[in-house]
Amino acid sequence: MRVLNALLRQGLPLVLALLAAGSGAQTQELRLYTEEYAPYNYTVKGRPAGLSVEVVTEIKRRLGLSVPIEVVPWARGYRAAQTEPMVGLFVTARTAERESLFQWVGPVSATRAHLYARRGEQTGIRSLDDARKVQGILVPREWYIHQDLRGRGFTNLVPVAAPVDAMRMLLANRSVVIAMDESTVAETMRLAGMVSDPPEPIVKISEALLYIAFSQGTPAALVQRWQQTLDEMKRDGSFAMIHQRWLPGVPLPPSSHKP
């Protein structure tokens, strides 16, 4: 009896989450969306891969979940996480604009965003105010960088579907600058077929912590279990091993659950 009671106590949050998930929709299941955003999440031979994919996969394993990970355009996943129940979207930059839109699990990593130009290009850009004058800034649609610059009143943004599209357009001289995360530049270059002369950062835009974002229609108890499991991974060292394998030498994100 004591063993049974202990098991019930340990599994109660997850049981409650599963019961809550079924209360609104009889067969509602969790869906997990991600995008092409190397090295955090991207497709390799038709299968999701990357730092955050490994973290999410390990959380699923520890929770006994068999939910597939779907790679979709960011705008589609972002819209689903705002409008549909039982949706997880990763990785998602946690910003003030997004804070109330989702329930947050993380952080999974940290990143900084810059404006980049072709190496040696004389853009004349020395500040973000200078960047307002260029013909167009390529930026992945509805990324936190896009939302940030739009919120600052930039009217010369050129949204694209994915970071690799922005990189290819920069290579083809379709624009003089792109807005991108520093931790994704090298892998995005590779995917775009750029083997040398990486673009160089010219102006810093912002910093962000990256999370797994759950829709507000996801039971809070289930989200809590995801956070607890991620915290366990950070304590036992498995999270650090994954993070350093994908981002060697990059410091681990802070342990705080808030940006």
Automatic annotation (TrEMBL):
Which stretches make up the Solute-binding protein family 3/N-terminal domain? 34-247
Q: Any signal peptide, and if so, which residues?
A: 1-25
Q: What SUPFAM superfamilies does this protein's entry cite?
A: Periplasmic binding protein-like II
Superkingdom field = Bacteria
Q: Which UniProt keywords apply?
A: Signal
Q: Which InterPro entries match?
A: Solute-binding_3/MltF_N (IPR001638)
Under the heading Pfam families, the entry gives: SBP_bac_3
By its UniProt entry, which PANTHER family does this protein fall under? Answer: PERIPLASMIC SUBSTRATE BINDING PROTEIN FAMILY 3, SOLUTE-BINDING PROTEIN FAMILY 3_N-TERMINAL DOMAIN-CONTAINING PROTEIN
Which protein are we looking at? Amino acid ABC transporter substrate-binding protein (PAAT family)
Q: Which organism is it from?
A: Roseateles asaccharophilus
